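User: Hi! Is it possible to get a structure for several chains at once, not just one? Here's what I have:
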Amino acid sequence: MKNRPVKVILWALFLGVLVFYPSLFGLYFTNIFVIFSIYALYATTFNYLLGYTGLLSFGHAMFFGIGGYGTAIALERIQGLPLLPAIIIGALAAVMLALILCPLLVRVSGTAFAMLTLAFGQLMHVLALKLRWLTGGEDGVGGFPIPPFHIPGVISLDITDPKKFYYFAMVVLALSMWVIWFFTKTPFGSIQTGIRDNPRRVEYLGFKLPHTKAVVFIISGGFAGVAGSIYALFQNLISADDAFGIGNSFAPIIMTVVGGIESFFGPIFGSAILSFIDELTSRYTERVEIVTGLILILVIMFAPKGFSGFLRFMRGKWLSPPNANPALEETK
Amino acid sequence: MESDTVLYISQAMHGLAYGMVLFLVSAGLTLIFGMMGILNIAHASFFMLGAYFCYQVLSMTGNFWVSLIVAPVIVGLLGVLCERYLLRKLHAYGHVGELLLTVGIGMVILGSVKIFWGTESLPVTVPQILKGLVKLGGLEYPIYRLFIIALALVILAIMGLILYKTRLGMIVRGAVSDAEMVNALGINVPAVFMFVFGFGTWLAGVGGVAVAPILTVYPGLSDQVGMDAFVVVVTAGFGSLKGAFIVSIIFGLLSSFGVQFVPKLAPVLMFGFMAIVLALKPAGIFGETE
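Assistant: Yes, the chains can be modeled jointly so their relative placement is included. Here is the combined structure:
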């Protein structure tokens, strides 16, 4: 890129704001920001399926939920479990679920995939409600001990302090997002977009379609599990309706669509926009879903590329030299 | 022994009645899917809307029969409007957009319902004739369940007549298998789509009215029955009406006997059944393999 210094300065500025955010905006907005970031990662994992591989999941909450439950139950049952293994248990639980489901799911695509994930998501919801001895039914798992983030000789952070939790969550979430971003840039990422655009040709080139889809599904599920795990740690509570509810499966869909499906940063924009709208509308009305529903309809009808499509359009209009090729801009 | 048989039969009646409601909802869903290739996520919301309109009309007129006629028609008209002014504009851009649009419609309906009627359960009373029990062959049956079963069978018969005996039905069946070809033959397929979508949502509305007196009317209705209907459609195979009918009855019986014998596992039974079917045949029992 030719304006690399500008980009570096922007990133540095962004990082600076991130570091000083809690001191600048206070506790309330710090907590909102943590929730926003958790959902940004969650929506990014969703878009890793939809935007990059063309698989629309209507039950993504099952990974989010099982990640949260995995971490919460592990911390509740195992005495003195350190923090990182607890998060890893959450992520592994999600990976296991993805592994169990993928033999069924990778064989289908499109609407069938959406319906099956919807059904399995609901199955997880029912299971979380019914397996009382493990999940606590409607009440969920709460009040579990939260160990400090401790690496001997390097760092020890008591994350029950909201400010310290903010830094911890930022690092974990940003790292996860970076890993996903990295995956999209590898040759494997190209196969993925190939599957989205023309599955037949990819198969003809000798790549195994079901296997590739399975790997994508597992990566996406695992990181959604990380998001759920951080969510459980943040709330110190994970409950069936919150984690596995159909609303939680729709949340990343709406964020991704509003933010822009075809962009990596789209879901992050979407999460920010929806957090903002949520925060704003919940001051005036309890019925946030009608507002988000209307926004979803409007975006799909009139701006199918979402917010990042809008940004790209604006940038193409004002910031690029007059003879620049818009097609190149798109594929960048 | 005698009391056991009575119990089984009454459980079977409950199961059949619930299966019929499931069929009303899933028939619309599977018809819309088979025809237009879209999964109407808002279908469950239309179903719930049927129950709410039933409550509203009942409290305005005091006549259950009027609401049985009027409420589903309003729901069907709303469905037609959604198809004409929202879904049709997206049809050219593929299924994902349409699918997401129905999610938005569902959310708006749920939100509006909570605004207009609140979140508490609203009771719906049935007319005197449908109350109580009726004696048949020494056994007692609740009349309302019998009424639901009869209603669903009548609708099934009418649907069968329209689909297999009329020109319109022929066009619909043709459009299910190849919409482009039917369009090329000079038939106004978008209008047929609109009709089918309206008819499907009308069916969901009928299901909503039928279920309102049993389950009362509350915003969680769409999740409860709607999800079961989705599972029916997945298990039966997308777009198969016959499959939807059979699987609905199986699921109705499964849920009523499940509650009796394995109360803790009852809600999981359906999903277990679905998982087994899909493991063996990913397209569903009656689905065509891709």
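Confidence is low (pLDDT under 50) at residues 326-332 of chain A. The interface with chain B takes residues 50, 56, 58, 103-104, 107-108, 110-112, 114-116, 118-120, 122-123, 126-127, 129-130, 246, 250, 253-254, 257, 286-294, 296-297, 300-301, 304 of chain A (CB under 8 Å).

User: Great, thank you!
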